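RECORD TYPE: inverse folding
INPUT: structure tokens
STRUCTURE:
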């Protein structure tokens, strides 16, 4: 095999390997992204449940309207009294 043929073969192998790795890494990234989204969703649901449980056991909740807007889960607790100024 001549030097030019070896170089062509080398470039062919390198390019094919790059393509295969890119496809593999893209698939792996998508899988990990979905896994992360699921775990993050579970974590957020757990935090919201903890907050709801805390709210059930207290008599007075005080926060600004901005804070109340950020805590949409506070509307789920009962009974709640919201006072706006």
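DESIGNED SEQUENCE:
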């Amino acid at each position: 095999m001549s030097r030019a043929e070896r170089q062509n073969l080398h470039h062919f192998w390198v390019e094919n390997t790059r393509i295969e790795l890119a496809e593999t890494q893209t698939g792996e990234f998508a899988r990990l992204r979905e896994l992360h989204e699921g775990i993050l969703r579970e974590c957020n649901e757990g935090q919201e449940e903890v907050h709801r449980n805390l709210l059930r056991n207290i008599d007075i909740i005080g926060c600004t309207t901005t804070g109340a807007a950020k805590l949409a889960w506070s509307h789920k607790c009962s009974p709640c009294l919201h006072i706006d100024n």
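NOTES: The helical segments are 3-56, 65-70.
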